[in-house]
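Q: Hi! First time doing this. I have a protein sequence and I read that you can turn it into a structure. Is that right? Here it is:
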Amino acid sequence: MIFNKDTAEKTAELLLQINAIKLNPENPFTWASGWKSPIYCDNRLILSFPSIRNYVRDEFAKNIEKQFGKPDVIAGVATGAIGIGILVAESLGLPFVYVRPEPKKHGRQNQVEGFFQKGQNVVVVEDLISTGNSSLLAVEALRNEGANIKGMAAIFTYGFNVAEENFKNANVDLFTLSNYENLLDLAVQKQYITEDQQSTLQEWSVSPSTWGQE
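A: Yes, that's right. Below is the predicted 3D structure, encoded as structure tokens:
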């Protein structure tokens, strides 16, 4: 669920402007999973544009507090959400931790890096939601350390049904600055894509794992 429509449209426009999101229905990208996709999203580019990263920081900080109440700790999912997560924590004056995909193989073998106390309220910051699996592994790691997860806030989601089911099953409320639906509407409006291309992009979102396969 988006925080609000105005933020969703503005965020989508900014991501398109800096090529953090690329739309190419005619020459699809191949994801690491092997899926063919007419969209590629790299929100790490946001950090290289001060005015845009400040906008994302401020929208996160404002909407996290409004939606979840002010938490005790902000957690970022490694590696894509570490940078923006730190900015959000700094804006809210809160401690920050980050969560590795898996525990370290050496030293203290931490999966959660940083300090928080059991029972503290934590909001998890993520850069991108596809199926939600990796994001929810971070939630599981935090819960195993005793965190009370208030919810997750992400920059962008593809809005896959499987992600909605995964978050529902994990009992995690997810809110995003923008999503696929608002992105496509904005992209047509601003002439990044045609209406025909929009139709192709909508078809992909219905069955992304099989789209583009002969």
